[in-house]
Write a structure and sequence with these properties.
Strand order of the largest sheet: 1-2-3-4-5-6
Number of strands: 11
Distance between the termini: 63 Å
Helix content: 25-40%
Shape: elongated
Largest sheet: 6 strands, mixed
Amino acid sequence: MRARQVPGFPVDILTCSTCGIRVAVHRGQRLPCDHVKLYKWAQVDEDRYRARELAAGFEFVARSHHHLLNTGGRSPHNTVHWLRHLVCGQIVPRWQRLKTDNKTGEVAPPYCIHCGGEPWRPTTAIDLAACDLLYLVQFHARGVRFLKIGRTLAGMDRLPGWLRYGARVVQVVEARHDKVQPAELHIIRACEEYRMTTHPFAEHFTTRETFRMGARTVIGNLTGWVGTGARDRTTEWVERYTLRRAT
């Protein structure tokens, strides 16, 4: 078996020198190749997942051994399939809870944690000059207070959805899609050490974009992350939040 480390994860990809089948294991773990079992796994992947994921820019790499990275249900990843994102070349696990494309209503392929984006939606479907909303909201539920960063195409129902769950608007800015998308990724990376390990709305969104309240000083003003052309829409959304609370 030949071993290759997966950057960013305590995982090795083992490749059988005889049959070429790959399996993901914990870092340092070594296993003999079970050709029949692994071949059946590969066939299932081929039939059910590979074509759709390859069309979205993800190439199947390996299936994991047992419940890799599963920490009692708290892991944000599904440990069954490990894929290579063809855009950036990084190997990533599939999300644990499959996401739904708000535009088509279909189950979406995985999300690349390295370069971000929404790979199930073709780039040609988003006008880079179209306006996105970059928002920062605060949740207070079950005794837990935390911040959530996010972005949404103007007119989509993400931000109003969080208001329905009781989120309080901290700041909302509007700018071009090609400015908002990298701004969100930069904020997520800058606040890495403040990331939540769990929160009361885990079934609705992951911990990747949620932070402890101390991250507020790091985030500061969203317009500074977006740059020129950002328009502050906070007052408008605070009024919508206040009206929703009143009704």
